[in-house]
Amino acid sequence: MLKRVAEPKAADPLLEAEQYHAMDHSSANEVFVRDFLDWIGEPKLDPEAPTGVLDLGCGPGDILRRLAEALLGDDPNRPAARRGLRMVGIDASPDAISLASDDLALSTVDEIIHLDVHDVTDLEPWDDGFADWVLSNTVVHHVDDPKAMICEAHRLAASGGRVFIRDLARPADEALVETLVERYSSQEAPEAQQLFRQSLHAAYRVDEVQAWVDDCLPADINAEIGMTSDRHWTLRIHKIQ
Predict the structure, then answer these.
(1) Which residues of 27-48 are buried (b: 16+ CB within 10 A; e: fewer)?
(2) Helix (H, G, I), strand (E, B) or coil at 33
(3) E strand or H helix at 234
């Protein structure tokens, strides 16, 4: 069994943010948004009661942009539909937020997405039940206290809300690490391949995440976790109460 190795701290945070930003995550992000929408069905956007969306570790903001565009359909400028969404992206990296702001400024949905710099494991400024949907994609292995992040995600979800968290799963051995690096990042720069390799080593197994869920969430919580690709696990929580 491959032992977990935490990612090294970036010597140059801006350079690392730029390297992550330059990597092509479009396919994985599109799958993330599609899988989330398949899970929740077809939501009705109500301008009188906007759907609150919170993305923990939003990085370049691509998930929020894709989700907004998918929900708003062919005419993202429709005033009523736009008022039906309240979207917030949080990331601990000021450089990532800056790059995300630049990207979103070129989109048609930038006015409904608010970005903020904050630690995703300690979101005390945000009230319980802040968002109807709490999302996170490929962030858990980056943070120092992943259990706290999952607990915060559950706290911030409103009654009846959804939590949808996906991250890399640590492979069983070095051979599988290299197989995944070759399969999914062979077209990237060597620096990007190394970042992906480090992320795989720093990722958590399903059983480790399940232990956090069992430890910090209510016993009767409607939560499911499992492998959803050859390199990802997904945690789905439907917060009935």
Answers:
(1) ebbeebbebbeeeeeeeebeee
(2) helix
(3) strand 232-239
**Residue segments in the chain with a per-residue pLDDT below the cut of 70:** 74-81, 241
50 CB-near residues (< 8 Å, 6+ apart): 83, 84, 85, 86
Check residue 122 and give its pLDDT.
Answer: 86
- Rounded distance between C-alpha atoms, residue 174 and residue 72, angstroms: 43
Token pair of 60 as six digits: 């370049």
Rounded to whole angstroms, how far apart are CA atoms 195 and 7? 9
91 forms beta bridges with 117
What is the maximal distance between C-alpha atoms in the chain? 53
Using DSSP's 3-state secondary structure scheme, residue 237 falls into strand
> What integer pLDDT is reported at residue 80 of this predicted model?
61
pLDDT at 110: 84
The three-state (H, E, C) secondary structure of 74-115, written as one string: CCCCCHHHHHCEEEEEEECCHHHHHHHHHHHCCCCCHHHEEE
Rg of the chain over all Cα atoms, to the nearest angstrom: 17
CA 141, 143, 148, 150 dihedral sign is negative
Helix count and strand count (H, E) for the chain: 9, 7
Residue with the two structure tokens 């959803």: 228
Instruction: Report the Cα–Cα distance between both ends of the chain, in Å, rounded.
Output: 38
